[in-house]
From TrEMBL:
Species annotation: Acinetobacter kookii
Pfam families: PseudoU_synth_2, S4
Taxon lineage: Bacteria, Pseudomonadati, Pseudomonadota, Gammaproteobacteria, Moraxellales
RNA-binding among keywords: yes
Described purpose of this protein according to its UniProt entry: Responsible for synthesis of pseudouridine from uracil-516 in 16S ribosomal RNA.
Domain RNA-binding S4 span(s) in chain numbering: 1-69
Family in the record: Belongs to the pseudouridine synthase RsuA family.
Protein's recorded name: Pseudouridine synthase
Catalytic reaction(s) noted: uridine(516) in 16S rRNA = pseudouridine(516) in 16S rRNA
Matching InterPro entries: PsdUridine_s_RsuA/RluB/E/F_cat (IPR042092), PsdUridine_synth_cat_dom_sf (IPR020103), PsdUridine_synth_RsuA/RluA (IPR006145), PsdUridine_synth_RsuA/RluB/E/F (IPR000748), PsdUridine_synth_RsuA/RluB_CS (IPR018496), RsuA_PseudoU_synthase (IPR050343), S4_RNA-bd (IPR002942), S4_RNA-bd_sf (IPR036986)
UniProtKB keywords: Isomerase, RNA-binding
Amino acid sequence: MLLEKMLQSQGFGSRKHCQQLIKNGAIAIQGEVISNPKHKLDLKDLTFTVYGESFDYREKVYIALNKPQGYECSHQATHHFSVFDLFDDVLMNRGLQCVGRLDQDTSGLLLLTDDGQFLQALTHPKKHVAKVYRMQTADPVRAGQIQQLEQGVELRNEAGIFAATDIILLAENELQFTIHQGVYHQVKRMLAAVGNKVERLHRQQIGALTCTDLEEGHWTYLSPEQVELAKTRMTV
Ligand code: URA
């Protein structure tokens, strides 16, 4: 691939802007400044620097964010911060999107990518990717409520039954369970449907991928193995 095209694909701006960066001597590969925009590159394990800052070439990006409360998953957040505020322009220029959404007041594992196929694979309703949530509830969780969640509840304006699996009562007012769909406010609505209320919600896991070692507000690139873990279909 040509150097100018590679830089553009990585989010460094328009082809013209990338040509200018190269001509300005901003780009080096293995310590050697390359000033020809048409320089041909082998992309395998390519790293390069832009004004001394090091970057790995990535065909697509897969990111895990431990989302803090108070951040919206939309580009034009109105009343809160946007999760996209946590990423620099280079990543944003690549067209980063959230893989599904978490509410503003929900924390935990959120994936972001510029790979449309990955996004589709994880969010398509027919794929049933498992998501594990931990929550604090307004009232003590009763055995009958757990039973109802296991059997499944109806949600207004949604077709079908919404059930939780792998339910663990962690404390009187603390519950963890897995869902296999992803409709609007699903967990909060499921708890409301059994006569309780979610006070605090945290996503622990998507597929077989967790983010336990990521500090809140921090993000990391996923390895190819982690990308596969996220896609792992955990059957009900
Ligand atoms: N279910 C909810 O109610 N909220 C979320 O943010 C995620 C799942």
